[in-house]
Amino acid sequence: MGVMSCRKIKLVLGASLHLSPPLHRYISEVPAFPVKQHMMAALCRSAGFGACRLHTSCRASAKQHYKMLVLGGGSGGIAMSARMKMMLGADKVAVVEPSEMHYYQPLWTLAGAGAKTLASSGRPTSSVMPSGVKWVKSKVQEINPDTNTVRTDDGTEISYEYLIVALGLQLHFEKIKGLPEGFDHPKIGSNYSVETVEKTWAALQNFKEGNAVFSFPDTPVKCPGAPQKIMYLSDAFLRKTGKRARANIIYNTSLPVLFVVKKYADALWDIVKERDIKVNLRQNLIEVRADKQEAVFENLDKPGETTVLQYDMLHVTPPMGPNSVVKGSPLADEAGWLDVDKENLQHKKYPNVFGIGDCTNLPTPKTAAAVAAQSAVLHRSIEKILKNEKPDKKYVGYTSCPLLTSYNTVVLAEFDYNLQPLETFPINQAKERRLMYYMKADVMPHLYWLGLLKGLWGGPEPYRKLLHLGMK
Predict the structure, then answer these.
(1) Helix, strand, coil % (nearest 5) of the chain?
(2) 461 three-class SS
(3) How far apart are CA 279 and CA 368, in angstroms?
């Protein structure tokens, strides 16, 4: 519970209740002693103030207060803190983020295939944090939207007027039996964690012959195209090094489809058939026996039926789930995701709370491209709400997945909530293109660091309209 001194009570009882000068002077002279928050609440209630008035009147119970508090320093959190700095001023914005390093995670697919270095994907958080904005180097422990407060792991309580939640999701390697300890063995890696990306590249380099196995879990995942990307890149690497003839490339996915948008799925089926890649649908990785180099998959259409695959290389996409802090708060939906309006990103119950990125229950794949589009909409929503106006810009679910199909080609998937293509360029993006590879590998990282994180890039919508002559 928060603790308040009598001198702080004076501010409320003297200023808010308009006490007579003698009584006001008496309170001022009483020696300080600790008063629990519930005692303060009782005093306020006895004077006719409700709980919500208690928070605004007794703000001294929180050590820090900001007009806009941002939780999370990932792509969504940094992008929105930069935008809020421009809107409100740096001194009114704070970001809670414990990590000293910030990573451009889309680059990890290329790092896992040796096309980029892991080091090139990261920069110090201090270098991407908007100047002047308060950086709270702590982990969020608890969110209490009923009192407009957040508590960090060091016990600090921060109060806010508006809150943006950008806490991302959590990886759950431990939900696969034998992991994460299995990563101590060779021949196994994952592009989804900074600790395991380079293990993927090592496993690919050391591959000699046998099965190269790639998994997709039975949960929502961030960048759902990434498990396929490393598979295509591995195929290309093994061809380049003369090992492909001795390799069986196997893609086991929990999904009933190869890709959620039919236009791109059809193109990808052509690619896997052409390259002799075996795809098994509705197969979920449940166990890794790293000492024996065995992966155990369950048939989701026949629960209890399992298949054991021997592997010489295994890429694991871990099960993922909502952030535990969000899940344990009143902000979560039944599944534990942040419950926001899918069009304006405002929380459905708490109007001064907003969400962006992987932590939300927005029904679209979780990608950095989605965050970019969401940041522009959220910026506009907050701008309108601060003026007591109704949000007028709608997020249509835009997301993008540049599907790397080799070391120099990409199928650029772009689509909306309805899983309909929403393509930026007036060409067939389901076709493998070299130009799209350079955009993915070289242009997009610059757009991320210098555009999105600076609050200057909100997705390709304006350019899409221009390139399609205003017809899309």
Answers:
(1) 35, 25, 40
(2) helix
(3) 27
Query: Which residues make Cβ contacts (< 8 Å) with residue 249, sequence separation at least 6?
Result: 212, 214, 231, 234, 235, 238, 275, 276, 277, 278
Please check whether residue 301 is in contact with residue 311, taking contact to mean a CB–CB distance below 8 angstroms. Answer: no
What is the rounded distance in angstroms from the CA atom of residue 85 to the CA atom of residue 93? 6
Question: Which pair of structure tokens corresponds to residue 222?
Answer: 């961030």
Supply the pTM of this predicted model.
Answer: 0.86
| CA separation for the pair 171, 192 (Å, rounded) | 8
Distance from the Cα of residue 180 to its chain's centroid: 21
**Residue 241 burial class via C-beta count within 10 angstroms: exposed 0-12, middle 13-18, buried 19 and up:** exposed
CA 366, 72, 416: angle at the middle one, nearest 5?
Answer: 20
Q: What is the pLDDT of residues 222-264, one digit of tens each?
A: 999 999 999 999 999 999 999 999 999 999 999 999 999 999 9
Q: Which amino acid is at 363?
A: P
Cβ atoms 229, 403 nearer than 8 A = yes
- What DSSP line would sit under 394-416, residue for residue? -----EEEEEE-SSS-EEEEEE-
Q: Specify whether the CB–CB gap between 363 and 342 falls below 8 A.
A: yes
How many residues comprise the chain? 472
Give dist(CA 88, CA 293) in Å, integer: 55
Which amino acid is it at 211?
N
Q: Which residue has the tokens 């100047």?
A: 131
Tell me the two tokens of residue 181: 């300890």
Task: Rounding to the nearest 10 degrees, give the CA dihedral for residues 460, 422, 268, 234.
Answer: 20
By annotation, the residues acting in catalysis are 223, 401
What is the rounded distance in angstroms from the CA atom of residue 190 to the CA atom of residue 314? 8
Q: pLDDT by residue (tens digit) across 94-119?
A: 999 999 999 999 999 999 999 999 99
